[in-house]
Amino acid sequence: MIRTTLSIAVLSVVMVSAASAQQYVYPAKGQSPQQQQSDEAACHTWAVQQTGFDPAQPAAAPAAPPPGTTATGTTAGAGARGAVRGAVVGEVVAGDARSGAAVGAVAARGQSRRQNAAAAQQAQQQQQATTSQGQTAYANARGACLSGRGYTVK
Hints:
Keywords: Signal. This protein is mainly alpha-helical. It contains four helices and two strands, in the order H-E-H-H-H-E.
């Protein structure tokens, strides 16, 4: 439930920032189309220098998963560690270390998958938030530059 709510909130922020990224520029002082094009190019360059964000460049690829993650999405050794814990508990509680080891291994792998999936989702959300912040900063800087050159920016 919490993941769903968080995902919806992140998606809403991304959609709002994408919608607000479109700027409309009006030549308030009668600038020619050629002058407007020149001013917009100069303001683009200045905004990129100020913010470090260039909307024309693709976003950096998300970081690779941490080393040690297996093809099934578990951390290497999670099943073995779970089997050891399960064997101890199974022996103490029911006198059956073998069944305890099997249950412990399955439980540990499941927990490992969930933790790794949550970490990957968090990294993706962080990347989206960083991109959104960059877009907003760029749009503000570009708008300030164009306003300073006599344009109305909305």
